[in-house]
Amino acid sequence: MKFKIFFILCCCFFKSYSQEKDLNYYIEKAQKNSPLLTDLKNQVRSNTLDSLLVRASYKPQVSGNASAYYAPLIDSVGYDSSVTNTHVLSALVGVKKNIIPKSVINTQANTYKLIKDALVVNKKIAIKDLNKAITSQYIVASGTSEQITYNQKVEKLLKDEASILKKLTQNSVYKQTDYLIFISTVKQQELTVLQFKQQYQSDLALLNYISGEVDTTSVSLKKPDINLKSIQNSEKSIFFKQFEIDSLKFQNQNKLIDNAYKPQFSLLADAGYLSSFLITPHKNFGVSVGAGLSIPIYDGGQRSLNHQKMTVNLETNSAYKTSFSKQYKQQLLMLNQKLKQASEIEKQLQSQLIVVEALIDANKKLLVTGDAQITEYAIAVGNLIAIKNAISQNTINKLQLINELNYWNLNE
């Protein structure tokens, strides 16, 4: 019975540590859990409803109105009956329809379209920001995981060598101090592995935090498949789309200003009962129609001033676009330069690794024969660990640079 319980616990333990997740898993979780993306999505829906509300206001507006009025005369004292009719009763259904030119309708519709376009762009940029943050943290966590794997291999190698060295020390081939020097190297490596494991837990916890997940399960991460994507035309970048939409907004605002100075025409009609009860109240059922016209004549020059404001706004938007374009190009140049430098460093580290690995192999052979210098061997192992960790850090740096370049180059 105890064996069965132990077996079940082992299976559960193995299952919890055998889970493997990839970058897409965390990106999908982050997008699903992001309140900002939900907010922007709902803003797009709300903007669509606002547009429909404006369209509904263009349709005939029908209302029912009822009122009763009584102004009594007491001993010939009271309101003038020729003004008040003493008592009035009305029950009417009224219809009002504003006659809106098609150009005005199109301009108003374009206003909501541009608002929607801006929200869509903001949503895409928010997704890009979120994906970049998730990818960046995934690279860090995955890199730490690889460092754990490598350092565990080194730890095993050192322990195997330590067991050989122990036997040789017992046979007086090596001094006790040599053995203790080597054991201190083993202990240092055990500490290094422990520190990387703790760091991995922190990296994974932060990855879950950014993804909006509550999960303390230890999982393994697949190696990130991140490649440098082809560079698109910078003018088609989604970051420049913002300036284009802002420019269109100001141009559309100019049309709205002009539309406010166009004559406004409306039709009115009502039908029902309206009576003062003075003459044939039973015949006071009827209808009425009317029309209204409003023509702006003079507003103190506000129209011209508003157009000047839009011109200033367009110039400001153009200045920001020019400045951003320069920074955008400089940013890409800097990132590509750093990526090239990281590749050069990688070549240097790989050449150093070949030398150190050859030195380690030579010392392993000398250890068996009793000719190895333990201090030099320990130093060589330390150099090997340092170089491998430097390679891992450089790989993480390269992937981070590629992630940053893809962020600026792609609209995905």
SSE blueprint and pairings:
Elements: H1 2-18, E1 20-21, H2 23-33, H3 35-57, E2 61-70, H4 81-84, E3 87-99, H5 102-170, H6 176-211, E4 220-221, H7 238-259, E5 264-275, E6 285-294, H8 302-369, H9 374-409
Helix pairs in contact: 2-5, 2-6, 3-5, 5-6, 5-7, 5-9, 6-9, 7-8, 8-9
Describe the structure.
Helix 2 (23-33) packs parallel to helix 6 (176-211), helix 6 (176-211) packs parallel to helix 9 (374-409) and helix 7 (238-259) runs antiparallel to helix 8 (302-369). The radius of gyration is 40 Å and the shape is elongated. 13% of the residues are buried. It has 412 residues and is an alpha+beta fold. The chain has helices at 2-18, 23-33, 35-57, 81-84, 102-170, 176-211, 238-259, 302-369, 374-409; strands spanning 20-21, 61-70, 87-99, 220-221, 264-275, 285-294. The strands form two sheets. Strands 2-3-5-6 form a four-stranded antiparallel sheet, with no helix packed on it.
Tell me briefly what this model is.
This protein is an alpha+beta fold. The protein has helices at residues 2-18, 23-33, 35-57, 81-84, 102-170, 176-211, 238-259, 302-369, 374-409; strands at residues 20-21, 61-70, 87-99, 220-221, 264-275, 285-294.
- Given as residue ranges, the uncertain stretches (5+ residues, pLDDT < 50) are 9-17
The class by helix and strand makeup works out as alpha+beta
Individual helix count: 9
Number of strands: 6
Radius of gyration: 40 Å
SSE ordering: HEHHEHEHHEHEEHH
What is the overall pLDDT average? 87
